[in-house]
Amino acid sequence: MPKKIVLLSCVATKLPKPAPAGKLYNSPLFKGSLEYANSLDPDDIVILSAKHYVLPLDQVIAPYDKTLLNMPSDEVKEWAEEVLRRLRKKYNLEEDEFIILAGAKYRKYITPELKNWSSPVEGKRIGQQLQFYAQKLGKAIKEGFVKLVNLIFGR
Which of 53, 110, 118, 135 has a Cα at 20 to 30 A from 73? Predict the structure, then answer.
């Protein structure tokens, strides 16, 4: 059975000391994308890291200063090849569903190798992404509250 995998992007804003990757990145954008990723009930969530390639949320790492944004295309392509090599070890790139919450530079050389992928934030600027997460999470919170009320009152 195909898995649902969410790929998040690393961000520049990090805690000043080593921490699990899911907590190290602490910008509002990362927090929103992680919360949204969790709301999708995926089989796995991993972070695409400019330095570490593919990170599980619980892997402890030290803060670093590396981004794809100022890397030349050939380096980004090499980075993507290593990311794909690591993804292939754990996931089925032909069958699994990948939801990518990362910018164009992180997706560019990865998506041609993924058969089933989507990027609900594609084409959105940072402010629009934050608004997207807020709207989606607000809806999820409301739906959860309605389900809870219905459970309590047997509707």
Answer: 118
